[in-house]
From TrEMBL:
Keywords: DNA-binding, Transcription, Transcription regulation. It comes from Zestomonas insulae. This is LysR family transcriptional regulator. Pfam families: HTH_1, LysR_substrate. PROSITE patterns: HTH_LYSR. PANTHER family: HTH-TYPE TRANSCRIPTIONAL REGULATOR YBHD, LYSR FAMILY TRANSCRIPTIONAL REGULATOR. The keyword Lipid metabolism does not apply. The keyword Transcription regulation applies. Belongs to the LysR transcriptional regulatory family.
Length: 299
């Protein structure tokens, strides 16, 4: 019978592509790791790896087993977390994701309060685009995420809870040539490189229609801190929700570009996303409540 230990060993080898590196990563001798993989192959009745002189690759059976192994291990981890968290969240682990904009303000506020209330809960936060976070959620690598949910609202596999809409602003560095214009037009703005995070399909289309050129953005980056520094150090422009820009605007690091009406969308479309039909762990429930509480306070 296949056990979780063998599956962990198999995933380690698959991810490292090398027995010696995998053995070192999981603190196991290479002969012991090889025996574990051989036992797993014998139990399943198939070869999981094509073994070359210098590296190894997954067989078709190996690819299938890897997909299921990751889900089984994630399920085992979720069960362990749920049991360990039962009773005042004195232990356990929470894995969540966030898009670049929620990760810049909303999520840090909620996580800070979670850490204050439940200091023994370990948290792993992944900051990625909404499409990548969806894949991680369905593969059970994370339990929930907050990101742009425009492309996710009709997905039957997901539970999407919309959050408050935040006004979007174009921003640039202080002293940018566009600031000398009383009311920069779409054509004026389109003359400069535009940096942004990954956009939903409809958002990218409307932005291209508004500025009259494509493809956009010219520079795609899903790290808001990098985007902000890029804009601060150059004539590149970008746009973001008003709440994540507030401190930089007040401190004079950045400036906004009027008029707001040039923007191709009314505002942000954050949503809290989890798997449909799956209950959240106690830690995830606590964080969800804090996110919604922070979302109301920020109005």
């Amino acid at each position: 019978m296949t056990d979780l230990r063998q599956l962990r060993h198999f995933v380690a080898v698959a991810e490292h592509g090398h027995f010696a590196r995998a053995a070192a990563a999981i603190n196991l001798s290479q002969p012991a790791l090889s025996r574990s993989i051989q036992a797993l192959e014998a139990n399943l009745g198939c070869n999981l790896f094509d073994r070359g002189a210098r590296n190894i690759t997954l067989t078709a059976h190996g690819q299938l087993v890897l997909e299921h192994a990751r889900r089984l291990l994630a399920g085992s981890r979720a069960l362990h977390n749920a049991v360990s968290q039962l009773g005042n969240l004195q232990a356990g682990e929470l894995r969540l994701g966030a898009g670049p904009y929620p990760a810049a303000r909303l999520i840090p506020i909620a996580l800070g309060e979670l850490a204050r209330r439940y200091p023994k809960v370990r948290v792993q936060l992944l900051i990625e685009d909404w499409a990548s976070l969806r894949r991680r959620l369905l593969n059970e690598n994370i339990e929930l995420f907050v990101a742009d949910c425009r492309e996710l609202r009709d997905d039957p596999l997901l539970s999407v809870e919309p959050l408050r809409v935040r006004p979007m602003l174009f921003f640039c560095r202080p002293g940018h040539p566009l600031l000398a214009l009383a009311e920069p037009s779409a054509a004026d703005i389109a003359a400069y490189s535009l940096a942004a995070t990954q956009l939903p399909e409809d958002g990218a289309r409307r932005l291209q229609e508004t500025l009259g050129r494509e493809p956009l953005p010219d520079i795609q980056c899903d790290n808001f801190m990098v985007l902000k520094e890029l804009v601060r150090q150059s004539d590149v422009i970008s746009f973001a929700p008003e709440d994540v820009l507030t401190s930089a605007l007040v401190g004079g690091e950045l400036a906004t570009l009027p008029p707001r009406e040039v923007l191709p969308r009314k505002g942000s479309a954050y949503g809290l996303v989890s798997r449909a039909g799956h209950s959240l762990s106690p830690a995830a429930q606590a964080l969800r409540a804090l996110i919604f509480a922070g979302d109301v306070v920020a109005q």
